[in-house]
Amino acid sequence: MRSAFPYLHFSVEEQIAEGDKVLTRFEWTGTHRSDFLGVPATGRSVKVWGMVLDRLLDGRIKDTRIIMDIFGLMMQLDAFTPKG
């Protein structure tokens, strides 16, 4: 991902903690500079949202789940156009 979007900028939009879990909602921006998931470089700027759910154990991250809007990213790269 860093090779395709070499100057990624992440921003934390919201963070919620409860018990041993921390949910972080983020956005990242970047410019598509090389192949990404089979899509050749487009030079397009993109903005992508996502969420990370971390589970902590003894003050360290034990498990991580990441949800990211790859569909929206691929639409911004013109790799996919919805019908209708």
Task: State the gist of this model.
By secondary structure, the chain is mainly beta. 8% of the residues lie in helices and 51% in strands.
Beta-strand proportion:
over 45%
CATH topology: Nuclear Transport Factor 2, Chain: A
How many β-strands, per DSSP? 4
CA-based gyration radius: 15 Å
Q: Order the strands across the largest sheet as they lie in space.
A: 1-2-3-4
Instruction: Identify low-pLDDT runs.
Output: none
Task: Give the structural class.
Answer: mainly beta
CATH-derived architecture: Roll
| Overall outline | elongated
Q: Output the number of helix runs.
A: 1
How many individual domains?
1
Distance between the termini: 30 Å
CATH class call: Alpha Beta
What is the H/E order? EEEEH
Share in helix: under 10%
The overall pLDDT, averaged over residues, is 95
Major sheet attributes: 4 strands, antiparallel
What would you say this structure looks like, in words?
A four-stranded antiparallel sheet has the order 1-2-3-4. A hairpin with a 2-residue loop joins strand 3 and strand 4. The protein is elongated, with a radius of gyration of 15 Å. The chain starts with 8 loop residues before the first strand and ends in an 8-residue tail after the last helix. By secondary structure, it is mainly beta. The chain is built from one helix and four strands, in the order ββββα. The protein has one helix spanning about 70-75; strands at about 10-20, 20-30, 45-55, 60-70. It has one domain: Nuclear Transport Factor 2, Chain: A (Roll), CATH 3.10.450.
Strand and helix layout:
Layout: E1 9-18, E2 21-31, E3 45-57, E4 60-68, H1 70-76
Antiparallel strand pairs: 1-2, 2-3, 3-4
